[in-house]
Structure formats: structure tokens, C-alpha cells
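User: Sequence in, structure out. Go.
Assistant: Echoing your sequence, followed by the C-alpha cells.
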Amino acid sequence: MKEPYVTLKNKNGVGYIEFFHPAQNSLPGNLLSELARTIHSAGEDDHIKVIVLQSGGDRTFCAGASFNELVVINDEETGKIFFSGFANVINAMRKCPKFIIGRIQGKTVGGGVGLASATDYCMATKYAQIKLSELNVGIGPFVVGPAVQRKLGLSGMSQIAMDANTFYTAEWAMQKGLFTHVFDSVEQLDDAVKTFAETMCSYNPKAMAEMKTMFWRGTEDWDQLLLQRAKISGRLVLSEFTKEKLKEYK
């Protein structure tokens, strides 16, 4: 089994950020911190014009937060820190001056849906089903909710948040605005991502930075908002309901 990692590679002006974890690309706190730092670093690198966010492996883009870390939370402060991991990555993506293209090759759950939603342009395969499963364990998609709602709208976000047992198809996600294109294979996805990203490298970086600021206007309070949401999740994870649910899953 491979060791977890976060890497950044510059290919023809495209910064490919890749994360991996052997547990279906779930993201523990240390990987989330490294991912946020890497996004910031790529945003500061003048040799990188556009960023691609992707994960290793073929089957799962991201299984969300680390279950092993979730089950050992015993106080609100630890809970807040745990749920702040995805908040920090989403905010790093939001504030990054470069456009971020999402490459979603397979299923994505919970926090992974938040990452996909925080990209500026997102392409996927037909295998990239999405699910917000948080309500299953007695919490909710509080931290990723603003990013998901921004892409799917309140109706779409509330639908998958309440229907926490169901994987929604990539086609559904495309109809709602999360995915721009859905491809039949990973190879087709990679070709499209490469072509689109390298084309964007020919554009004026200052114009793209101004466009990104325009697209994200109205989210300036997310530094505080997502931390407030992390506190809510950190409190709920200590409830008797959630503790019992986590025992069942464990």
C-alpha cells in the first residue's frame, strides 16, 4: 500500500496538485494541512498559471474526513480543530489567485464534495457519483455546505444533504452545475483537463486573477463562517446519538 502524500508538479505552467491516502483518499488532519499549504504555495508561484486539483488512484476521488480521527474526538476544541481541516483547504482554494480546475475521477463523499465544489471549473468521469453522508452519523455538512450550495444551489445541496444514504450520479451533478463535463473514461478526462488547463495558460494571469475575485465575491466572510460551522460539527460529534452511530460504524 502506498503512503499518504500531497504533491505539486509544474507541467507547462500547469500546477498539478495531487493528494492520496490508501483509505479511499480520505483526508486526515495532517494531509489537509499539507494540502492547504500546497495550494497557497502554488498560488504564489509565478511559474504556475493555473492549478489542477486531483487525487491518486482510479476509483475514488475523496472519501471525506478521516474516520479514524473522527471516532476519537472527546472534546469540543478537538472537534473544532478536526472539522476546521476542510475549512482551511476550501478557504485556501477560495483565496488562491489562480483558477483551480477539478479532476474528479471517481466517487466523492462528504468533504470531498466540498473540495470539488470549491474548484473554479470541474470535470469528471461518469463514475464520479457524489454523496453528503454526514447526517448518517448525526452531524451535517456544515463546513462544506457553503461551497456545495454555491455550486448546486440551496435546493440541490439540501436534497443531497437530507438524502444522506444516496449516491447521486455524475450526470445529476452536471445538471446542477457542479461538473462542467462528464466523460466515459479517466483517459478522456485527463486529455480534456490537460487541454483546457494548458489553453488557460495562454491567457493573461492578471485578467484571470481579477475574474476569480469577481466569481468569489460575496464569500469574504468564509474565514469566520466556516470556523463557526466547524464549531457546530465539533459540538454535535460529542452527542450521544453520534457516539452510538460511530460505534456501529467502527
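User: And one key feature?
Assistant: The CA atoms of residues 74 and 238 lie 7 Å apart.
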